What we know:
single chain
Amino acid sequence: ANYQLNIAELRELDVVRAAFSGMNDPLDNGKQKFAFMKDNKTPTDIMNIMDITMRRLVKMAKKLPIFNEMTQDGKFTLLKGGMVEMLTVRGVTRYDEQSGGWHTPTLPAQYQVPIKMFDSLKEGVRDVQKERFLQFFRVLNEDLRKNELAIDLLMLIVLFKPRPGVQDPNDRIVVERQHNDFTALLHRYLESLYGDESRRFNEMIPKALKMLEIISSNTAMLFMGKVNKEEAEALPKEFFPVE
Ligand SMILES: C[C@H](CCC[C@H](C)C(=O)O)[C@H]1CC[C@H]2[C@@H]3CC=C4C=C(O)CC[C@]4(C)[C@H]3CC[C@]12C
């Protein structure tokens, strides 16, 4: 069978690539770089590092014509609902099992956010959330997590997930259609790379999406009472209440 992508699919992949093009930009000097190069990172440092990725994910969404067609409310609801899931997917691509930490592509490998940082987060949730992340890392096999475009499509499947908070009828149609579109495009893209072999991803993707939901719905308490609220950036505090 011929698994070549057609012109429309190739063009859609170009739009996706362009939206994600800023994800690996160098960190700004000052606070961002400082937080990432610090030795003993506090939960506050972690939040200020998360802020970088969160802002880049917001910028990514705004580069998607289809996202901009939605109402302000709809856009906010999608970002609110999908942010932690998208961060977690980003985390899988930046996590190094050998060193046990997350790295950023633009700083030398000696700088990392150690996964051990979970030990300084909220008792009672930190251990199970660390385990869930590591389990999720293992579910997304090497081929998928090393393929930037596949990961970008997975993030868009998560961003455009039908969510009850999306009220506007047109928004709901857009979200539903884009969720299905990006799911189909990911499968076609993987087929164009692996042919019949791509069937092995078919059960992995729904499983990964389910795990992301569980991770995201259990993250809220993680930083509670562990962060210096004056020093933490505002955006992460919307997703991880600190008091
Ligand atoms: C991807 C990110 C490291 C690279 C950051 C850098 C600016 C970049 O994106 O290139 C790491 C640092 C902290 C990690 C979260 C910590 C706690 C977490 C708690 C969970 O329950 C799920 C996973 C997250 C959100 C981690 C996802 C990946 C993050 C954002």
